[in-house]
Fold these 4 entries.
Entry 1:
Amino acid sequence: MQLFQLPRVEESDLPLEFVRGVRRLGFSPDGRLLIARTLKGGWLIDTTTEAVRELWAQRDLASEGSGVGFTPDGTGVIAFTDESAVRVYDVETGTVRREFRADYFGGVEPGPGGRVVYVVAGGRSQIVRWDPVTGKKRAAFGGHGGGTTLQLAVSADGNWIAGTNIYEVRLWDLRGGRSPARATRCIAVQLGFPPLLALSADGLYLAAGREEQLWIWDLRSDADGPQALAPGPFGGVAFAPTRPLLLHGSGEDVVFRNPATGAEVSRLCWGIGPIQSVAFAPDGLRCAAGSAAGKVVVWDVDL
């Protein structure tokens, strides 16, 4: 287990847990680097040397529900860092290598391997596929007719994407690289902001919720409805990229679950404070969790 403390950043007009809290985490393709995003900027963690350094400094309340990730070669960090641009930051220098600008953004989520970034942009709240290396964009699809798509989740196989506003979750089929004409599934559910959202590696299970409640759906059938997990607080949710295993924060603990049954498989407490974010490395062999106290823990998965 490795423990990292992000440097202190104070700001008088926001509660300390807002300033220091680790809202999203993302591993590099080789699992060596980790990007931790707070509402004041992004911190690059090298799990080999245990060095922690600031990659960008930007108060970015607008991007609270958006994910972070790396380009396929691991030399760039992908993040939505203010109200007007999704950017690729050079890992070595912190300079902006490329950016996607728009008048309005909703959710932003790097896809598996960082080859494609899914960006909700424009007034119609549609999803654009953006290549962070070439800067090319593909035709938009999807969106919510009744409100902005606040958060996205992509399956590890790249075949499915889910998006949510605060009233419903929609699922789109990306198999064959096509732009889907319509959602294949629409699930009515009352969520908060930022919502919790994750898709299993094969797109068969969906986890969605808010701090007070988390549900799991088996997307092959809705006959029995979702499984409702015990009341929270919940913080962060992620599926393993190689097998059906769900990870989420539960107060100061991290919990692994079998998504088929909802049963708890393992529970760990690293003593870092209330969990706000969790992530799996691309090979599924390590996990990370970030807390409201600005602490990040990385550990080997032994299940």
Entry 2:
Amino acid sequence: MKIVVIGAGAMGCLYGAFLSEKNEVVMLDSWQPQVDVISKNGITIEEKGQEKQYPNAKACLSGKYSAAADLVILFVKSIYTEDALALNSGLFGENTLVMTLQNGAGNDRKIAKYVRLENIIIGTTKHNCVNLGSGKSRHTASGATTIGSNHNAVENLNRVAETLREAGFEVEVSEDIQRILWSKLFVNLSINTFTAITRTKIGFMVEDKHAWDFARRLVYEAVEVAEADGTYFDRREALESVRKVCIDAADGYSSMYQDVMRGNKTEIDAINGAIVEQAKLYGVAVPYNSLIVDLMHAIESAYKYNQQERT
């Protein structure tokens, strides 16, 4: 397949690297130095202290590549989805499939402006990576990639699943992808925000009783919103799924942690912010998630102040 990955960060590089061994892969990114190094050397994945080179992956500056693709995979932050789609609209032909494995909610609605509904694949991944820069990613945790569709797309789902499996990914095709997406949101709204605020590895959240109480409050609020929206969860099981991720990816760093450490804008509005907005629709009280959204925005605003203090 001709595959274009929009977003050559940690996760984009992982999927692009693995897929490049049996497919034509082009990585698109807005950061010129990342594009240059991938164009020259390909992608490097570090795993368990060993590095492997994937020289077949090519790269281009976002917006500068317009050949129609068989499959487009979105790995930009949710806050940049609309801009990335508009900038790269030339990628979308009549039969182009678009898969989002991004954090946050609502990305599929943005994609629907560019391709048919049955060509949209939505999903989650249990892989975790850290961006080392210069076309390198450290692969810190593995797991299933779960994909599905809100429309009649069995043939398209099977095609994408087979392509991912040929690249070495474990793939599950779900008939209830909304439930999977809610489950991923529970993980992100607790782990991402906590590790970004405390600047710790993922595993710390289950090691400290205060941290775990933090997670419990956020997840329980989100479960109430999910139920109001029509998807029902046992809140203890939802919290247990978060605990399992913390254990499985204990030595990893969340994407929001990496954003804060680099002084970048986070996806807080598409994660905890999505819970807050949904809660307004149903009249559900979510004081802890609301507080976290405000706190993360304050942390983002403090980047400039902290830089001035260091200089």
Entry 3:
Amino acid sequence: MAMRAGVDKWLFFTTVLLVVTGLAMVFSASAVIAQENHHFFFTMAGKQVGWAVLGLAVMLLLSFIDYNLYKSPIFVYAALAVTMLLLALALVLPAIKNTHRWISIGGFFTFQPAEIAKPVLVLFLAWFLSTRLDKMHEGKKTLLRAALIPLVFCALIVRQPDLGTALVLAGVTGLMLFLAGMPWKYLLVGICVVLLVLLPLLIFVPWRLARMVVFLHPNCDAKNLSGPAYHVCQSLIAVGAGGIAGHGFMNGQQKLFFLPEASTDFIFANIAEEMGLIGSLIILALFVVFAYRGLRTAFRSLDPFARLAAFGITMTILLQAFFNISVVLALLPTKGIPLPLISSGGTSVFFTLASIGVLLNISRKAD
């Protein structure tokens, strides 16, 4: 297969634009809080810049490394073993922010194993399914075996608890199985199983049930700091306040101790307030371009592994963006999912950029 002169430039520059935009908005959303809590306005943004620079460097490096390296069973099984170990380790280590999503090293460095699980799951499924494309109708020998690793990952991540990331992994798994040729009937069965598992996780966990009630019966109480509707109320206030053109960079008001997680889960609300509808549509347009170029790379790849890997990487990022923006706009119940490449979070931006590095390498060989 002939190599291109270079990577997909549209994909590359769209990624860089999203990262740069994210760094600017993380600084805007976090500066006042960082000054208040750490006495230095650049504390949070500075960490994000460091992770973004490191991630971009790794993205460039991986864009030159032949993706065929990841087809090796040794690589796949080693990556799976390390990821499962880290996910399990996070559950037994002391909680951080009342959850077991992070592993802390020396008290100064933390990372989220769930972020590692996303690209590892995609590469595993791409490798496993690409060798069984003619056996996708076999429920026990192919589909159940393919679903085993995603089930283990999702179970460990739900236990953290992080239902949002587990849903992203489940969604990507279903989409990749379907792309590989899984019959419709198995897809429908899988959806029914997910819904049956999801229902008790929503009903029998009080704080999730409260969020579902708020979503189904909106009752905005912006003054009740501990109420389940507080996050989404403040988010909608920020979005509505931005109007068409927004208040201007750094001029948002909701981030000033009103909007929770203004630099992470609800950063899109801050974008809408400061950049308005115009700025919000620009962000959406960048994700649309990313989607088109990523899927174009996938469907132009003749190698089944490359096609599945490119598709999985692209859909992982798009599903996260869809969930995040939908939560900010109250189109889905509140859940903690970052906006890829934009939200604050070192592990997230690093592994997202690393995944895109693999996608860029695949684009070199796509017809």
Entry 4:
Amino acid sequence: MADCELLATCPFFNDMMPDRPATAKVFKKTYCNGSNAECARYIVLKAVGREKVPSDLYPNQKERVKEIISSS
């Protein structure tokens, strides 16, 4: 499977994770390499747009997705 098309411009990895490369690697393997359907950031972006994705939303925080989408 291909990497997420948003990986190169994802602010989460490009702005929040430079000092935590091991953690970033695990997140990327789980949420960005292959299927991104489980990534909370991707789900919100596709549902309501990039500008509505909170900067502090981690890819594994799917429990926040419904709240973010419903308040948009």
